[in-house]
Amino acid sequence: MLKDLPRYECLLEAAKQFPDLDPSATEVYLHLLRTSDDAFGALTAHLHRAGLSQGRFTVLMLLIDKGTGCARASTPAELADRSGVTRATMTGLIDTLERDGLVSREPDLADRRMMSVKLTAKGEALIHDYLPGHFRRTAALVEPLTENERKTLVKLLAKIMGQAAVLSAQPADAVPAGIT
Q1: 180 pLDDT band (50/70/90 cuts)?
Q2: Most Cβ neighbours (<10 Å): which of 107, 130, 133, 138?
Q3: Which residues pair with 116 in a beta bridge?
């Protein structure tokens, strides 16, 4: 990601050469990308100190029952679907987590042809030890925002996510609606 984002005046100048460039839309987009990259980086360093990657952390979080805080089993296919990665990627994540003793694979009780993945005691301890610092760090990241600003930001980001879903469903060469 760019270290120094272009000034708005530069975007206005670029729009003279590229009429399809909407300066305010581009400014928002670049700030969104930069903020996402910076926020991800601020939390990734904390993950790495715990010996985790974003993918490994996601798998561990998916194996925690949010209602009870206890471990629960899931199939690799369910984990892949819930995390938005391919099944092959999930297999690799589970392999490394199993190698490190954080998860185990066991035959599914309902269907012996299937495997269930669940946290080991070591995995459960790691995630429970890690989460308090993680939650403090995420809170510190948005600490400059008031509660109303946080709610507004969530609503605005939801609008962008909705539009991203619409654009993703269109063919790559399609011109988005409302744009000529």
Answers
A1: very low
A2: 130
A3: 106
